[in-house]
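Hi team,

Below is the intake form for alpha-L-rhamnosidase from Mangrovibacterium diazotrophicum. Please confirm the fields before the structure is written into the shared record.

FORM ID: S-0412
PROTEIN: alpha-L-rhamnosidase
ORGANISM: Mangrovibacterium diazotrophicum
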Amino acid sequence: MRSVLKKLLFLFFTVLCLFSAAFAQIEVSRLFVENKINPVGVSVMYPRLSWTLESSKRNVSQSAFDIRVSESLESLQKGVDLIFSTGKIPSDQSVHVQFTGNTLKPGRKYYWQVRVWDQNDRVSKWSAPNYWIMGIMGPENWRAKWIRPGVSERDGQKLPLMRTEFALQKKVRMATVFITAHGMYEAEINGKRVGDLYLTPGWTSYNKRLQYQTYDVTDFLKDGKNAIGVSLGNGWYRGKIGFNPKTGFYGEDLALLFQMQIIYEDGTTENILSDGSWRSALGPILDSEIYDGETFDARLALKGWSEPGFVDVDWSAIKLANFPVINLVTTENEPVRKQEEFKPAKIITTPKGEKVIDFGQNLVGWVQVKATGKAGDKITIQHAEVLDKDGNFYTANLRTAKQTNTYILKGGGQETFEPHFTFQGFRFIKVEGYPGELNPENFKAIALYSDLLPTGNFSCSDDFVNRLQKNIQWSQRGNFVDVPTDCPQRDERLGWTGDAQAFASTAAFNFNVNSFYAKWLKDVAADQAEDGSVPYVVPNVLGDECSPGWGDVATIAPMEIYRSYGDKVLLENQYASMKAWVDYIRNTAQNNLWRPKQSFGDWLFFRPDDDNSGRAASTDKDLIAQCFYAHSTQLLIDAAKVLEMDYDVHVYDSLLTKVKEAFVHEYLTPSGRMVSGTQTAYVLALEFDMLPEGLRDDAVARLVTNIHEYDDHLTTGFLGTPYLCHVLSENGQSELAYKLLLEKSYPSWLYPVTMGATTIWERWDGIKPDGSFQTPNMNSFNHYAYGAIGNWMYREAAGIKTDPDVPGYKAILIKPIVTQKLNFVKADLLTYYGKVVSEWRWSQGQLILNVSIPINTSAKVYVPASSIDKVKESGKSLTGHREVEVIGQEGVYVVVKLGSGNYSFTVSR
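The structure came back. Fields below:
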């Protein structure tokens, strides 16, 4: 009897498990609002919602969804008192689904969740609840007044503190703070730092777009008396900025705008505002500049200054200011936060006797220091990227940037220091004045950059290439500090537009840069001149001149981001800017030829020692300009098609034909030789389709010949390098593209790796083989432009692409280029739909291709094989395969169509 019962129980649980599995094929995971997870400060009235689906099954898709929203987490989970509920909506859309409910209120927190039905109409569980908090929703909702310190904050360069107190008599349901500043700010409530954001309010074109931040501070408040304290710093607004750094580019004032919205449990509200009741004093930060660093005197620290009950009778009254609020915008991109931490790798005494700490990684951020000493002891920390060939501390490449932090101890026990309103680019620090021996436990390097979601990984059988990939990612981290900068260490750190466009596609593989670029591109449009020209740097602190390949960021970056994320709203927002840039070129061109007054050309291309050899790598700048003229026009046409601007498609199609005809007439001989026979000239002409079809093969041959003449080395600069390997692999020269990637001698991507680089260099030979340096006035060792090869590594070596007609990886292409030069290549990319994986490897004479396709997408996979009968998937023949649709043979590939799931293809020789 007992054995029968056991069998029945076993059978029952088996059926139950099978039943559960059948009805649990799909789950909802990561939720996004306006492309961010749990965003704070959403400013659009009808935000877009996205979610990711997961399942262990193949060929799973969404057939319907149901979204619900509530102001109460408890009500949401019960499904009552909802402010929005779609009910079951038949649709496979899971990205950028627009909220269409009632009007959302400023500063309110909204909880939401979603469930979906799969292709068999089986419903998932509700997702875990997520939330978003609304921003202030327009200038009419600002009640606070701009306030300025009542003290002379330029006196001795000390930076100001501002404070106020208020009392609460009722129980608080929610409290939301909105803050911005002229300069930078850090806020405290009741002695506790508000938020984990740094370098706020970030850098924008302040006179047109000044960001504010939104914080949920409900847990900061207490019954009775409360206090607010805010410290201010110079930042980009008032501090040194630009070439020959000058102060006060945006203004000489420091100012604060603070608004706290309190919602009580009884439903009533109250606002705590920056107004005439605040008071100000000078604080312990004696000076702080982005380029130069910070000086902090702990003896001047005021204990309890941001707590209630602090005696501030000696503080000065603030000054009211009449600054605008019409230019205020919410923070749309991911804010800057603390990231990785590094312990000292080595403590060095240099030949000069300097005490130096090596953190093993060139990074951007700062060093946290712990010390115990006497009052008045002064610790000075200088920052550098490299040591010279003798092993001494090297700072010549920083130009005028001091990159020095100074801390003055108050004494009486261990003290901890780190900066507030500055950041450094460094691997090494030189320490002077430290009380006692340098102990590794007392120093910690902290990386600081925009808190972007990591999305991509690439690896292969070559460790040098793997280090290159890490270097690309570290240069992206270090230069994506609220804006895409050119270098994070010297007296520059500007948003160079040429670098940003060259790297945009690579950036979108490594991290989710949808919101990052969306925010910055709005500043591109804001700083665009009335005639449509785009400045060298954005935010623009250098003037209104522009250059081909730099100004083209206005067209290149929006289309790259649209293709990567399917974000049509971004394209709509930037379309006027795109069109204005192309029209600027059209209006300044003559006979459809663009010969700009200013051009950087193929910046920092390889220069052979003997330019009289007949193979100099200098490319005609007007030829480059004409190529980018055509490219931007084509991208504008592409955008117009997406946005259904049919008239513009017609107009610019006609223009593009004329631009290309002018190129052929001006820069090409009848036999196909170009006025510049450089790699960059042929690469741009091929990549941007500038050549008559009959001359393309000849151009490819000339390009290959040029590369061979340089002993199979590249000679390209900032504009040619991103496209070099793409052009080769697209024109039957994949093995040569791999040879360039794997080359270790100068000039090459791997040469810096052989020299110990941990980031991408500005120059191909920033450090020469003998250990000496390139010219120090332009020799950054953290400069991401040449890292654009990462795009080829992901897209071609691993083969991960989005369908050009279906952006954002809703439809995926997997088309790897395999080679015997590597044993394996693997890449993965986290899209809004889930993770795409492509991995190929050689094993016992066979090629194995493993792919993963996210739920709710489809993929066309190109399996490298000469015939269908040589391919098996999970050991099964493709003929009659129920889960793999065979499309046919295309060249050296067998093409199949897949639904979601994990697949393993084996190709026999």
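SUMMARY LINE: The chain is about 25% helix and 30% strand.

Thanks, M.
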